[in-house]
Amino acid sequence: MKLRVVIIDDDKIIRKTLEKYFIELDFEVTVTEDGESAMKLIEENKPELVISDMLIPGTHGIEICKRIKHNPNLSGIKVILMSSVYKRSDTVSKELECNYDIFLEKPFDFNDLVGVMRQINLKGFK
Predict the structure, then answer these.
(1) For the segment 72-99, what is each residue's pLDDT rounded down to a tens digit?
(2) pTM for this predicted structure
(3) DSSP-based three-state secondary structure for 51
(4) What class does CATH assign to 4-119?
(5) Are 101 and 120 in contact (CB under 8 A)?
């Protein structure tokens, strides 16, 4: 069975690039550009991984993370937050609030993304 990922970013180029990358890694990929539709997709698909930009229309990435991590049916989902505006130091206090698995500053190298997925012990990812 393929691993599932939901990618949330309002930048079409980033969405398409990540989608292509994860398809090449043999993931089942769902993409969206806003937080509200993302939560519906996450609840329906129960992916193993969510990758979300922090600044998206509707619901902030931190709020999406909180909803996932505080829901017993979703709390096992790994969450990677990313941003070109926020830096790692900006997210430290928010990390305790939403318990994301890792934060990536944009732009990032896709080889780094693979390393991050191994670092968070994504089940079934080699």
Answers:
(1) 999 999 999 998 765 555 555 555 567 8
(2) 0.90
(3) strand
(4) alpha beta
(5) yes
